[in-house]
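User: Hey, quick favor. My workstation is busy. Could you predict this chain's structure for me?
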Amino acid sequence: VRVRDTAGRAVEGARPRIRTETGDEEWPNFNLLRQEGFDLSRGGWDTIINTDANGTNLRRYIPPGRYAVSADKQGFATIEPVWVELASGQTVDVEVVLRAAETDAEGDGR
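Assistant: No problem, here it is.
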């Protein structure tokens, strides 16, 4: 997952989210997925490793299926996920674009 802003700059420290289509599948390799930095406690997978200085977060060992990929970071608006269909053995490069959150007159984003 690569996270960029609307100007194409890398967003360091964003938290990519990779979730299953239904969010309730059972996965056979929980330990392997946890080692890869996934939080499996809420159905689907939420990565617990933020993006690096290049806006990248590499995930391996994801079973085939349909996934919603998004990212969040303070100061950026919530976005609709990018849907990805992953086949066995396939490598996919997903780019997520975040836009700056709108701020109110106080400038605090509420």
